[in-house]
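Write out this protein's structure.
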Amino acid sequence: MRLHGKVAFVTGGGSGIGRAGAMAMASKGAHVIVTDRDQAAVGNVVERIRKAGGSGEAEVLDVADDAAIAAVLAGVIDRHGRLDVLHSHVGVQVDGSLEQVSVEQMDRSWALNVRAHFIAARAVVEQMRRQGGGSIIITASNSATQIDAGMIAYTTTKHAAVAMVKQMAKDLAPDNIRVNALCPGFVDTPFNAGFERQMGGRSQLEAYIAEAVPMRRFGSAEEIADSILFLASDASRYMTGVAFVVDGGENL
């Protein structure tokens, strides 16, 4: 799954799955532009990439800002003359049922879990078409392939993200632009805070995972990064429009 000569762009790359994916792609030869709202975090990730012999650069980006997404991606394309991989990863997890989630929380969920991916994909399609193809990876969740109790904002927007991925994949396949959804299950990162609150604490969440996940454990960010590498590389060159579920069997 080599990526030598490829340019990759990652949102939400300052921690967790985004960071692990960025580092994995750099380890396989890609030049990785790592973005996040947290300047110190992305700087640390790029420093680690370079110390490991990889190539990368850091950009501060808040994906809630449509104009900023378009401007940063335009700058990357202008500097490098190509963009081979977009991993649009940023998302938010809001827990709560219909009566518990505010309109503002639903709007924020939509903005980060759907709209930001739409804006980023729009910003790279023209360049990918010019260069003969590319890979767009949008992080959804295994919540996009099932229904989670008490998670109306999260589950609704993740289902929408997968529907959008399938539509983009259908439309862009003739241009050799592949679009796939990465659908992780429970990965041991702070992103699980919503589920943890809902279940009453870390120990209760661990007990749930031991019961509901056939592999009886959290996944690691590094395990999900292996799937990112697959989707980014030519190893998945005949694959598009897929909700790629990596969840230890929870969906079974």
